[in-house]
Specification:
The protein contains 19 helices and 14 strands. The protein is α/β, with parallel strands linked by helices and about 375 residues long. It folds into 2 domains: about 120 residues, 3-Layer(aba) Sandwich (Rossmann fold), CATH 3.40.50; about 250 residues, no CATH class. The chain has a 6-stranded mixed sheet. The protein has a 5-stranded parallel sheet with strand order 2-3-4-1-5, sandwiched between helices. Strands 6-8-7 form a 3-stranded antiparallel sheet. Helix 8 packs across helix 14. The longest helix has 22 residues. The chain is globular and about 65 Å long.
Length: about 375
């Protein structure tokens, strides 16, 4: 098992300050493995709602849960939304005899239910797959190709990893999305998801995919919002300032897992990836996810003008403005676009991220950094 120290630290921090913590993320991302490091699965405080025994024990949920002390884990909580009002009552007890760590596949319905019933009582901790910090910089190429889902990354070969991802996508389209209220046929959803893969790293325009698959623009936007809500897709919003330049106002689309993106693009091996037209934007999205996970900014945007100036990430952290430009090049150079962003956005620092191994300076406040260094040692580097 690969240690996930950053995720574990985040859960411990949330538990130290909150009565309940919701660990939310897509299926198979490792939520259960993390929870079992806090409470063993054979404990009377562990409930897996995909287990008939656990389900039966919660037929009288108030009676079962109110006598427990310490940390209580409820896995796959979206299967029993009726538990949220009961949890609210249990979490209002003084003194508090038990905390709750609840796990579920993130969905709009689950988030809405929890926010209504447990407002002010529960902290939400989103969880993705394995990060570069988890697997180590020596496995960066494999991590980029296969993505962070544990069973995909740990597969014995690239072929086995691709087979796992193919099955994951099929199950996701045929079982998971219908449970979230999506009624479109799986074939239509697969076409939409494949088209979305070609938008990876680009500014979103709902009109083209809507025409191509015969759906309304509002339906396409709803599907996109749903994929974002279950942490499969990221919509990176544009930053607007009171500038005289005309600025881009639509979001950029990124797949949060590079392995799922590659599967939808037909990329099966490392040679396929290196020669694919989307290689550069794939690496950009991979870097975006690693940086946001490691840096954990207060806010994150991209910035672009219709005149061509742009910056891949504008991060706000501790009252600082940090720009990030991502380049898949051996030796990135200072560009006019970087100069414009540095001045117009009043950046405290601009980092140019590349896949190399050496750090060097391009200009005052502009440094080139390897992705591995920034993703793994972000706090030290940004001080």
């Amino acid at each position: 098992m690969i240690p996930r120290n950053q995720a574990l630290a985040g859960i411990r921090t949330a538990l130290a300050r909150s009565r309940a913590v919701a660990l939310l993320g897509p299926r198979q991302c490792g939520k259960t493995t993390l929870a079992r490091q806090f409470v063993p699965p054979d404990s009377p405080n562990y409930f897996d709602l995909e287990d008939p025994v656990s389900l039966a024990s919660l037929d009288q949920a108030m009676t079962t849960l109110k006598g427990l002390t310490g940390l209580v884990v409820i896995d796959e909580v979206q299967r029993r939304p009726d538990l949220f009002p009961i949890l609210r009552v249990l979490l209002d007890r003084e003194p508090l005899p038990a905390q709750f760590l609840i796990l579920g596949s993130a969905s709009p319905a689950l988030l809405r239910q929890s926010s209504e019933s447990l407002a002010g009582r529960m902290e939400i901790v989103p969880i993705g797959g394995l990060t570069l910090k988890d697997v180590g910089i020596g496995f960066q190429e494999a991590h980029w190709l296969r993505g962070g889902f544990p069973l995909s990354f740990l597969a014995s070969s690239d072929t086995d990893s691709a087979a796992w991802r193919k099955n994951f996508i099929q199950t996701f389209l045929e079982l998971d999305l219908p449970q979230l209220g999506v009624t479109a046929p799986a074939s239509t959803l697969f076409r939409f998801w494949t088209m979305l893969a070609h938008y990876h790293g680009q500014v979103w325009n709902a009109a083209e995919p809507a025409r191509a698959i015969g759906l309304s623009e509002s339906t396409v936007r709803r599907y996109l919002d749903l994929l974002e809500g279950i942490l499969m897709v990221r919509q990176l919003l544009p930053w607007h300032e009171n500038l005289k330049k005309r600025q881009v106002k639509a979001p950029k689309i990124y797949f949060r897992d590079s392995g799922i993106l590659h599967q939808l693009l037909g990329i099966r091996g490392r040679k396929d990836l290196q020669t694919h037209p989307k290689c550069g934007t794939s690496w950009e999205g991979y870097a975006v996810e690693e940086l946001l996970t490691s840096f954990q900014p207060d806010e994150a945007y991209f910035w672009a003008t219709h005149a061509g100036a742009e910056i891949d990430l504008l991060l706000f952290k501790d009252h600082r403005r940090i720009g990030v430009e991502i380049k898949r090049a051996d030796a990135p150079k200072l560009t006019p676009s970087m100069r414009v962003a540095l001045t117009d956005l009043d950046l405290d620092q601009l980092f140019v991220i590349y896949p190399g191994e050496r750090r060097y300076s391009l200009a005052d406040k502009v440094d080139v950094l390897p992705l591995s260094a920034l993703a793994i040692r972000t706090p030290e580097i940004l001080k």
